[in-house]
Design a protein that fits this description.
Number of domains: 1
GO molecular function, one term: corticotropin receptor activity
Order of helices and strands: HHHHHHHHHHHHH
Subunit structure: Homodimer. Interacts with corticotropin (ACTH). Interacts with MRAP; this interaction targets MC2R to the plasma membrane. Interacts with MRAP2; competing with MRAP for binding to MC2R and impairing the binding of corticotropin (ACTH).
Structural class: mainly alpha
Number of strands: 0
Pfam families: 7tm_1 (PF00001)
Mean pLDDT: 80
Largest sheet: none
Membrane topology: Multi-pass membrane protein
GO cellular component, one term: plasma membrane
Low-confidence stretches: 7-11
CATH architecture: Up-down Bundle
Shape: globular
Helix content: over 70%
CATH class: Mainly Alpha
CATH superfamily: Rhodopsin 7-helix transmembrane proteins
Amino acid sequence: MKHIITPYEHTNDTARNNSDCPDVVLPEEIFFTISIIGVLENLIVLLAVVKNKNLQCPMYFFICSLAISDMLGSLYKILENILIMFRNRGYLQPRGNFESTADDIIDCMFILSLLGSIFSLSVIAADRYITIFHALQYHSIVTMRRTIITLTVIWIFCTGSGIAMVIFSHHVPTVLTFTSLFPLMLVFILCLYIHMFLLARSHARKISTLPRANMKGAITLTILLGVFIFCWAPFILHVLLMTFCPNNPYCVCYMSLFQINGMLIMCNAVIDPFIYAFRSPELRDAFKKMFSCHRYQ
């Protein structure tokens, strides 16, 4: 999505001159380092779940889906840097067919990262809701078969949507669709939270008898959601300003922070695995076994 994720350089020169805010430029080495760390961390999460049979349950499969989304966001930046490096060294023809195709694939990965995160957080929220309020029926409602079907549908939809958004990236309806998914996810989870709160008040005694792990999972989701909003909201706002007021000096002033907003997205992929590890004793044990080379049961 070139005009959506291409930075502030596309802004009108007159608007830049009318703005007193200089571009904030960060070294590419910072992006590359954070991206590498994000890929490695999320890869470790995936390997831990794959190698440990005790973690192969719906909840951790949904977490793996979020880890894949984070990893795609980091891979996007790594591949973009590699592409720029090859172009600057003269190995690629500027604006050539290969570069255009590679740009589209990389942009699709970026969109997949956002869409995958949105839907992964949504299904994690639904899973936490069922765990808390339908604990006795949980294993009959959230089966492995339904989990795999749900995740397959989500990623097929995200892939198709990502390709469509890249193809029609220069149309305003595409931008609106791209940005509207973010608040829609927030509304969905907020409604779920309100419903959970109302049910918790009316079933306080029942909720107090639930295993602590169930409530701990809800708190983990809240932390993940808060980090996601903090890291992605500035970029979503950038996209909206880029579309609807690209020449306004105040908008241009905010858009001069594009690289900081981009770094926040990269940081999201680094922070999430720490949240999993800190909140999940099972995952911590899996990490310890991986690094100490113990065999899994």
